[in-house]
Amino acid sequence: MSREPDGLVELLPQWHRLRDAEDASGGEPLRALLAVIAEQIDLVRSGVEQQYDDWFVETAAAWVLPYLGDLVGYRTLPGYERVQATGLKDGGP
């Protein structure tokens, strides 16, 4: 569900909102279309927010750190198995 389902509708000029309300079908098709678009905007917004969080070790998703570690050639040092078990996010011993 959209954070602001009528947010896009409120951005329209009043004339368009009135025409949508006067529609013969009585279903406000423009409002319904914009509600679907708003849901997709929220999905994109959530993805962008998660990508921003993934920039930092403290807020990154669990899959990101091992992936980045593999890309840069990260190898666990002998004797630091706890880092391997708990992951990079913990910071090690």
Give an account of the 3D structure:
The radius of gyration is 23 Å and the shape is rod-shaped. With 93 residues, the chain is mainly alpha-helical. It has 5 helices and no strands. The protein folds into 2 domains: 1-53, no CATH class; 57-93, no CATH class. Helix content is 56%, strand content 0%. The protein has helices spanning 7-11, 14-21, 29-53, 64-71, 81-86.
List the helices and strands and how they pair.
Elements: H1 7-11, H2 14-21, H3 29-53, H4 64-71, H5 81-86
Summarize this structure briefly:
With 93 residues, the chain is mainly alpha-helical. It has helices spanning 7-11, 14-21, 29-53, 64-71, 81-86.
Proportion of residues in helical segments: 55-70%
* Mean pLDDT, all residues: 81
Largest sheet: none
Low-pLDDT regions: none
Structural class: mainly alpha
C-alpha end-to-end distance? 42 Å
Give the CA-based shape: rod-shaped
